[in-house]
Amino acid sequence: MEDIRVHVCRQKGRTNLAMRYVDPDTGKQVWRTSGTANHTKALKAAAVWEAELRDGRYQKRQRISWPDFRDRYDVDVLDGLKESTAENYSATLNVFERTVAPQKLADCTTTKLTAFVTLLRNQHLAPATVARHLRQLKVAFRWAHRQGLLVKLPEFDRIKQSKGARGRAVSGEEFDRMLASVPKVVGRAAAASWDFYLRGLDASGLRLAESLALRWDDAPGAIVLDYSGRHPMLRIPAEAEKGDTHRLLPLAPEAAELFATVPVDQRKGRVFKLIGKDGKACHGGRFVVGPIVTEIGEKAGVIVGTRTKLNEDGEPETVSKFASAHDLRRSFGFRWSRRIMPPSLMELMRHSSLATTMTYYVQSNAQATADELWNAVGSNPGSSDESQTAASQNGKRNPLRLQ
């Protein structure tokens, strides 16, 4: 921009003098009014504009429409991402489009973004959901800014989120109830496939999308059961894994035992060959399979928490949150958190940081450990230990007793 020169000139039929320069990138003339008919004042205005252009402080208003931006972002960015990731970004942009109704990309201002967050909160969406939408919008708008499509980035406020899990581990008794409810939800013809699927989720700790990518043989994006080594392993390519990293990870023994029940001649294609409610092969993705698992949890009456939603009158109400596929993963993580050390659990759960493992699984063991301690000593903690009894008789405080 250093070679830009702004000239003052008079345009026919205009009272005020005009300013113009030649855009070095396009070779086209750019015009702007000086706002005055006085030649000296117009020269000063031209000098200010020229300085702004050379310093990069002036940016012309971008005119790309919102639909055109969506088309470019789909082709240039989303088409190169994992399918599940691209779906998430498209879903966020769809929500923003429905809520804010931008006509041009330039409409995506801080004011619009603030209004968007307010509307989502008024719908009583979880803070984590609002934060996810904002993260994905930030990525999209930063890309548009780098491409020169968006002049000014809107400000993104940080959304405060609870660090606790939004569900809980499912107990053994509750899991049995879910298995018993399978035929009531999917029908008897499909029951065996869904029974095996729920047992597989519970035994493997796989995420929903990962479970649907699990195969006996190689295929693009597949997570493969690998029995070639000393122990069964999971071979996970980057495109099929949340952490976007190629991994070879151990398969939990109970999952290996479950999958070993499949006859050898049937170990082809997908591990979980689900049958739909219509009796035909279910080829739906996680947006089809996930709700069915939750429906099974609801039929079994397994409540893992609460959530807020708007009723028919538009008023917020608290409703029960029923067991989902991810709650079975939580059950897996909780069981193994009692058996192995945190670093090994982190690898088994495929977390990106030990802090995640500690937050969601290891710290939750405190209450379970306390239960074990009190169950071990019975209803009269001090009576089973003669030394503790003697210490109590000598006037020393018994550390096991409630004072």
CATH structural class of the largest domain: Mainly Alpha
Approximate shape: elongated
DSSP E strands, number: 9
How do the strands of the widest beta sheet line up side by side? 4-5-6-7
| Proportion in β-strands | 5-15%
Named CATH topology of the largest domain:
hpI Integrase, Chain A
What is the helix/strand order? Answer: EEEHHHHHHHHEEEEHHEEHHHHH
Query: How widely separated are the two ends?
Result: 79 Å
- The proportion of residues forming helix, as a percent range, comes to 40-55%
* CATH architectural label of the largest domain: Orthogonal Bundle
Q: How many structural domains in the coordinates?
A: 3
Largest β-sheet summary: 4 strands, mixed
User: What is the mean predicted local confidence, pLDDT?
Assistant: 82
Low-pLDDT segments, ≥5 res: 383-403
Radius of gyration: 31 Å
Total helices: the number is 15
Q: Your description of this structure?
A:
The protein folds into 3 domains: 49 residues; 81 residues, DNA polymerase, domain 1 (Orthogonal Bundle), CATH 1.10.150; 154 residues, hpI Integrase, Chain A, CATH 1.10.443. The C terminus is likely disordered. It has 15 helices and 9 strands. Strand 8 and strand 9 form a beta hairpin. The protein has 403 residues and is an alpha+beta fold. 47% of the residues lie in helices and 10% in strands.
